[in-house]
Design goal:
Number of helices: 19
Structural class: mainly alpha
Shape: globular
Number of strands: 4
Radius of gyration: 22 Å
């Protein structure tokens, strides 16, 4: 089976090399839908072959085909250096235990794949529009999985196709399946928190799609589905980030000079009208939403309504304090990989910055802060490009809100399975700016 797995990987490298454009669009369509499932195609102790490994193999073929272009891109795009620099340092700190294997074989290949796929194909305005139409479709489909599961029409979770994981998923009773008396769907990720973190990034994209489109009746459906799924997933972290994203949108529109006065009031007017329409339609279609928001968020934002949830919240506070005490014992170099540090605190969720402080001490903690800052900085810089704002109806602003949401939720839990989707969204606009400069400038001047 190992030989077969290696052969299949080589086949996809060849496909990526010979069909770079087609391979990129194929994986951009299906990869965000299937990579969280970790469905093993070929079982092998050496190489457990999953879909994201095949996508990585295709990406390697694409890079080999356009080696000098990607060499120039990686060299001239500043944020790429910070991203891979962070993961390189993370690998060094993780060499002390087996957790390094996950970083080398899964995390880094996924980041590499996300960057290569979008940079390879986003060269023209129609490419960017097509990609975000795909993102809207993906968010809608993922939301429908959540809604159907909540309403009792539970689709087959792709996790269950893996025999090794099925026994842990099927007929599983968990404290997190019910919150405030409501069933808590898991989504296609098989985890309500991971699914919610992905959906919060699709919210600004679906909102942009609705504001941009002329046919408001059809274009509001993805927005209704995305917000409804966020509510049904019942993640208080996601609720908080959702409100923060809306507040940030209002703040930016009124405070930054990128928007003309006419565009400001147009956007705000459309948003207010559409938001109230969305609330009315959502409550009409899903009456349970109102009760969930009141019981699961408004009441629980200040404390849980059940003893079980109270224990969970207090447990997180206790283990955060425990993490601090562990950090003080090894403040410089930490304990090892995040997976090993997670074991130290008995697998209870703490913020990502605390997890990396445990893993690599103050050194990795500071590098992680720089990593987050550079991603937000580069996303924010693109908001100021007036030409793109005019051409794509302020798309960079909504991309920034999406990336901002994807990073902000990690302040609540160390959950980064959604980073592949986040990097796809971020590098869609970075690659468009870079490729526009690369192909139009005689000196191939890159925008980093």
């Amino acid at each position: 089976m190992t030989i077969f797995a290696i052969g299949l990987l080589l086949l996809f490298v060849i496909i990526g090399y010979n069909l770079p454009k087609q391979s990129s669009w194929f994986w951009l369509i299906i990869l965000p839908m299937i990579y969280p499932t970790f469905f093993v195609i070929v079982y092998s102790k050496l190489i457990p072959l999953t879909f994201d490994k095949l996508a990585f193999a295709s990406s390697v073929g694409i890079v080999l085909k356009r080696f000098y272009f990607f060499k120039r891109f990686f060299k001239q795009t500043t944020v790429v250096k910070y991203i891979f620099g962070f993961y390189f340092v993370l690998v060094l700190f993780s060499l002390r235990d087996d957790g390094v294997k996950t970083i080398i074989y899964t995390t880094i290949p996924q980041v590499f794949t996300a960057i290569v796929l979008v940079v390879n194909v986003i060269t023209q305005p129609k490419d960017l529009n097509n990609l975000f139409m795909i993102f809207v479709f993906q968010g809608t489909l993922l939301g429908l999985f959540v809604i159907s599961e909540f309403l009792g029409f539970k689709p087959i979770n792709i996790y269950t196709l893996n025999p090794e994981l099925a026994k842990n998923i099927l007929d599983q009773t968990s404290a997190y399946e019910v919150r405030s008396g409501f069933y808590r769907p898991q989504g296609i990720d098989g985890n309500s928190v991971q699914t919610a973190y992905r959906m919060i990034m699709y919210f600004p994209i679906s909102l942009w799609w609705f504001l941009k489109r002329k046919n408001k009746i059809l274009s509001i459906l993805p927005l209704i589905i995305v917000i409804s799924s966020i509510v049904f997933l019942q993640s208080r972290a996601t609720y908080s980030v959702l409100m923060l994203s809306i507040f940030s949108l209002f703040y930016y529109v009124f405070k930054v000079n990128t928007f003309s006065l006419k565009d400001r009031w147009k956007l705000i007017r459309i948003f207010i009208i559409s938001f109230f329409l969305l609330v009315i339609v959502s409550i009409f279609l899903f009456p349970t939403i109102q009760k969930i928001v009141l019981d699961s968020f408004v009441h629980n934002i200040f404390g849980s309504s059940s003893n079980l949830e109270t224990k969970v919240v207090r447990g997180r506070q206790y283990y955060l304090l425990t993490a601090v005490l562990h950090f003080l014992q090894r403040p410089v170099f930490g304990y090892g990989s995040p997976a090993y540090s997670y074991k130290i605190i008995n697998y209870v969720d703490i913020p990502s910055f605390a997890m990396y402080a445990l893993s690599g001490g103050i050194i990795l903690f500071l590098i992680y802060i720089v990593f987050v800052y550079q991603i937000l900085k580069n996303a924010y810089k693109l908001i100021k490009i007036k030409e793109i704002n005019a051409q794509f109806y302020y798309l960079p602003l909504f991309i920034f809100l999406s990336v901002f949401g994807g990073l902000t939720v990690t302040l609540f839990n160390w959950q980064e399975a959604h980073f592949l989707t986040m990097f796809l969204i971020l590098f869609s606009i970075i690659s468009y700016v870079y490729n526009r400069s690369y192909y139009n400038s005689p000196k191939n001047r890159a925008v980093s």
